[in-house]
Amino acid sequence: MKIETKTSFILLVTLLIGIAIGFLFNRVLDRKKVDQFRDLHESRGFFHLFERILDPTPAQQDTMQQILDGYFARFRDLRRHQTMELRALVDSLEADLMPVLTEEQKKRLLEKRQLFKDRPRRFPPPGRPPVHAPGDSGIN
């Protein structure tokens, strides 16, 4: 084997190893961000976010917990309300589009909507574990 071929082979292998390491590292960081985001949907995670930012004294912790619990409930209710409004808006859009669409377009729209409903949810509703795609254990 020529020296140029060996050098090219070594560079290619090094590049592929670097891509693989980068991909795996990115998955680990992505999962951590997902977990942190999901924690915000729970009262304790919401409190921890502010606790990290504000570093309250022991005397402040109980009062801050009470305040944040009240706001957490309001944030949760707002998110639920917005989700319901968004669903209603999508349903309304679909109802207005249906009379204009061909049968093939209707079929494609309904298939995409079903795929969207059946997709694994990365951010499940509070209190529910995440649903993973088939073959994905969810462990990284």
Word description of this protein:
With 140 residues, the protein is an all-alpha fold. It has two domains: 1-39; 43-126, no CATH class. Helices cover 75% and strands 0% of the residues. It contains four helices and no strands. The longest helix has 40 residues, at 58-97.
Global structural class: mainly alpha
Helix content, binned percent = over 70%
Sequence of secondary-structure elements: HHHH
The 3D shape can be described as flat
Low-confidence stretches: 131-140
- Can you count the beta strands? 0
- How many helical elements? 4
Tags for this entry?
140 residues, mainly alpha, 2 domains, disordered C terminus
Can you describe this structure in just a few lines?
By secondary structure, this protein is an all-alpha fold.
Write the layout of secondary structure elements.
Layout: H1 3-39, H2 43-54, H3 58-97, H4 103-118
